[in-house]
Amino acid sequence: MSSLYVVRGALRRQGPPQSCHRIFSRSNFFSRPARGGPTSLLPSTPARTRFAPSPTGYVHIGSLRTALFNYLLARATGGQFLVRVEDTDQKRLVPDAEEKLFEDLKWAGLSWDEGPDIGGPYGPYKQSERLQSYKEHANQLLKDGRAYRCFCTPEELDTMKKLALDESRDPVYNKTCSHISAEDAARRAANGQEHCIRFKCDSVAPLVQDLVYGTYKSPVPLDDFIIIKRDGFPTYHFANVVDDHLMKITHVIRGAEWLVSTPRHVALYNAFGWESPQFAHVGLLVDQKKQKLSKRFGSFNLSSWKEQGILPIALLNYVLLLGWSPSRDSKEKSEIMDMNDMIQKASYTLQFHLRFTKGDVTVNSKNEFLQKAHMRKSLSESSNTESVLASILPSLLNSIRKCEENRVSQDDSTPHKDLGVRIGQLVRCAHSTESPSGTSSTASSPVSQIYLNALFDLDGKSFTSPMDFLKRNVYHLWEIPEQQYRVRLQEQQALLNNIVVRESSGEEVQQYSQKVSELAATLLESLQGISEENWTEQNIKSTIGPFIKSIGYVSDEKPFQAWGWKFLRWVVSASAAGPALILSMVFLGKGETLARVSQACQVAQSIEA
Ligand code: GLU
């Protein structure tokens, strides 16, 4: 058997915590992990792992996390990671779930060596296409006397169950059909009598050796569970075992909810005389109230994370840290990891460290920190902002579209719903037909991609979510309604009569009273003097910098309180917080900037009048 390094450190909890308690309450755990104590050595050979989702729902952060753990173990050991679609529960299939599954995994940045879409030496990788194999294996168990046909009808089983519960017994199958002779059963089956096939369990359930939970013993004897259902499809338990064996899976990392089922799986492995893979059951994700995460949890499904514009690598990094920690031996302690870091940390000194938390894992909000960190890292590493922007572009464009729709449909007098401020039209240079380079955007995109690239160059590092980004850069995309200038200036009414401009010649410093409209007029004149081609950060700074610094107001405490940059922010963005002002002016271009200065000047004049 290949080897895997198990380290059980500070993260290990004492005993199963709350919500797992129910699942494990009747279970026995031995206190030590499966093999050889706290640092037992596991794969030195390549691991074959799998992600085996059922297309009965979409990928969520819990399943992405399981997929990632399996992926990393395979990559860290130079093994293979495969995807297998477990679609045996035909009644619960969600029509587009399979298609979305591949789309989501690819978006997240995972790749697989074998799978339904790419094939592989042990295919097909979709259980509904492997029915013949399950039939053959079930027949083998029938032949060996390890399984039997059960003709009990669903109604009979219901009655049996009810009776058992009434008599306070476990509602397990009462083995009625195990007494039918094999010949008789085969004859009835040949006559078309509906039946399922059950596995004949030993009275004592086998022990499970789990890399996270240690030795696990089922607290109750196993019942004769179904392996082939009446519809001819295998059950999850059976198909899973047959496939993991035939696909030569060495390690199964999956959610802790499957631990209670694993004695059944081990019983099947034993009945076939197969070696079972190694199991690592990872704690379930729970919310702050210790409830299992479900679809009701806002950010459970991957789609909601995508809509929030999370970078795929930030999401992977986030889910990886939910219940797993990098090797303690690793020199690099940073929690911010790209894919290579993850693989490298998972395989430090070429051993995969299954440093998993035992028990439930409460989700946290580290995603915000990781998103910012990855955004900064990606933008500083990537010479091409486009590639970073590409992964969040759909969500960003969606949000812009939404704001546009609201703007167009809303009464002008109501504050803008999503941005919390009122917006004018999209700035001309952002428009599809008038982007800075003259490249037009597609009909469905209100803003040219070139413009968004430039905006990302300007402020991508502050991106956390599309809406936050739009709020921060609202007036880089939309014009400023006059009313905004007015409101923001009136908020500073108290100092408007005390504005001064300071001039110094030699030792002497003089201050002149000024009106805001006069400041704006002076600013306009200076900026007009800069030609289009010289419209650069440096030129703007040297042209208007001294003037801006000379602007202040007289207060009770101080004869001169600087106010120039606040004035400029009012002019450029109606006082909205955002990126550095001069860079914003460069970004907006000379035309839009001068238009804003003129508009600000007029508003000031009207207020002063
Ligand atoms: N099809 C099961 C699921 O979707 C797979 C469990 C396993 O990995 O064995 O959870």
Automatic annotation (TrEMBL):
CDD domains: GluRS_core. Belongs to the class-I aminoacyl-tRNA synthetase family. Glutamate--tRNA ligase type 1 subfamily. This is Glutamate--tRNA ligase, mitochondrial. Keywords: Aminoacyl-tRNA synthetase, ATP-binding, Ligase, Nucleotide-binding, Protein biosynthesis. GO terms for cellular component: mitochondrion. Its EC number is 6.1.1.17. Residues 511-600 form the Aminoacyl-tRNA synthetase class I anticodon-binding domain. GO terms for biological process: glutamyl-tRNA aminoacylation. GO terms for molecular function: ATP binding; glutamate-tRNA ligase activity; tRNA binding; zinc ion binding. Residues 48-351 form the Glutamyl/glutaminyl-tRNA synthetase class Ib catalytic domain. InterPro entries: aa-tRNA-synth_I_cd-bd (IPR045462), aa-tRNA-synth_I_codon-bd_sub2 (IPR020751), aa_tRNA-synth_I_cd-bd_sf (IPR008925), Glu-tRNA-ligase_bac/mito (IPR004527), Glu/Gln-tRNA-synth (IPR000924), Glu/Gln-tRNA-synth_Ib_cat-dom (IPR020058), GluQ/Sye (IPR049940), GluRS_core (IPR033910). It is found in: Mitochondrion. Its main location: mitochondrion. The keyword Protein biosynthesis applies. It comes from the Eukaryota.
